Amino acid sequence: MARDVLIAPSILSADFARLGEEVQKLDQDGADWIHIDVMDGHFVPNLTFGPPVVKAIRGMTKKIFDVHLMITPVDPMLEAFAAAGADRITVHAEAGPHLDRSLQVIRALGKKAGVAINPATPPSAIEWVLDRLDLVLVMTVNPGFGGQAFVEAMLPKISQVRGMLQGRDIALQVDGGIHPETAGRAAQAGAQVLVAGSAVFATPDYGRNIKALRTAATSLSV
Ligand code: DX5
Ligand code: ZN
Fold first, then answer.
1. 119 within ligand 1 shell (Cβ under 6 A)
2. CA 40 / ligand 2 centre spacing (Å)
């Protein structure tokens, strides 16, 4: 049965000099969530933005702010991102020794809690925290940069995670190398929320690019 797939454009590929306008444009052009990639130059080899930037763009849209934290340590920053306007906060399973605690803190802050797993991390990393999750993010590239190639080996992993989430109200998200062709295959494997940076910002018609991803994924979603 085909299901609706959500599209979460990553502002990592936006024009940072006009970030507020870019977020407004994504809103008007049909983005479901706004995906915000936070990198610390330590957990991943790139540096992006912190809570003040999230706060600055919060007034530009009412859409869900889906904040992907690629930082360690993560716990000391959770409150600041929640206060800045994050609706959902995703932390990496690899980023700290106390994943269960981090997820509890996110929910205690009134936000939806997610966990991301890198390509080399097995699905078993989330097995004992399922009760604390609203979302699982299966990374389909090694985090750090936009524009990388989709890691094909992640397709069976997406299916496996989908099986683990059966019967639970937990969204399955993929991030990295998503364009219309990979979007279809990721959706077929069980992904329900697609993050896309370069595919959305590739041309000025973001609406068309978002629609192409949605069409490709929805027809094949399971
Ligand atoms: C990668 C980020 C992604 C990235 C995706 O570390 O988490 O969200 O922006 O970019 P594309 O879609 O260009 O692979
Ligand atoms: Zn991301």
1. no
2. 13
- Is 132 inside a domain boundary? yes
> Does residue 1 sit within a domain?
no
CATH of the domain at 186: 3.20.20.70
Which tens digit of pLDDT belongs to each residue from 153-169?
999 999 999 999 999 99
Which pLDDT tens digit goes with each residue over 183-210? Answer: 999 999 999 999 999 999 999 999 999 9
Q: For 146-152, which contacts have Cβ atoms below 8 Å and span 24 or more sequence positions?
A: 146/10, 146/12, 146/13, 146/197, 146/198, 147/13, 147/197, 147/198, 148/176, 148/177, 149/177, 150/176, 150/177, 150/178, 150/179, 150/182, 150/186, 151/119, 151/176, 151/177
Q: What is the extent of the structural domain holding 166? A: 6-220
99 CA to centre of ligand 1 in angstroms: 22
Helix H or strand E encompassing 115:
strand 112-117
Tokens describing residue 109 = 């802050």
Query: Among all residues, which ones are annotated catalytic?
Result: 37, 175
Counting the structural domains of the chain, the total is 1
Q: Which of 195, 200, 206 to mutate to test the pocket of ligand 1 (most atoms within 8 A of CB)?
A: 195
